[in-house]
Amino acid sequence: MKVIKLEDLLGTEREVKSPAGWTSVRFLLKKDGMGFSFHETTFPPGLRFDMHYKHHLEAVFCYRGRGVLTNRDTGEKFVIEPGTVYALDQHDRHTLEAETELKLVCAFNPPVTGNEIHDADGAYLPDTGD
Amino acid sequence: MKVIKLEDLLGTEREVKSPAGWTSVRFLLKKDGMGFSFHETTFPPGLRFDMHYKHHLEAVFCYRGRGVLTNRDTGEKFVIEPGTVYALDQHDRHTLEAETELKLVCAFNPPVTGNEIHDADGAYLPDTGD
To answer: How many CB pairs under 8 A join A and B?
Structure first.
């Protein structure tokens, strides 16, 4: 059993602050052996960010805030609010825009190693064996 | 892309109400093809419940409420509060007690099929191919 407190990860390599403005705290990474990674991500109000996880499936639960998710493959838009889950099961190109601060709980399969960066397309690069 | 609203699952087979008092809303199950399942679980104040996932790994993020998690294998106790994650990476026998209503976001690997029940030990039974 592992018990991990958010406050203990702040300022460590498990708190990733994007130059774009979002912050992602990685509670569980590949090396934790769960078969998925488990993060809390914060989008500040007004942030609009394009993503495309070519190599991962991701599920996201919103527990606070309000925003809009756009599926850039289809043009569809969805309100994101507490109690909304979205699942990127088709490696969907997507844009998330926060109207108020968004608090999101995210699971990735395969698990993120912690060393990925978003490339120019907003993807995480594939795992290279870490 | 799937976008799922909590309110749309209430009263369906994806809202599981335990006779013990907890409720689990299954946003993503095995058949959703994510490689993990993704739930929101609510423990009402005062509920104390023994669990033992012999066949699954589980990670849990608390976003509201306060409780105590006991590792029944070691006797250790941990405060569960917003921003706490616990990971059952050793199929740990555990007890969760809610002091106030606990709101939990849970990921299971392998994914729950939706048909499991807790057996007498508090385990989910293994997947039989659904």
So the answer is: 137
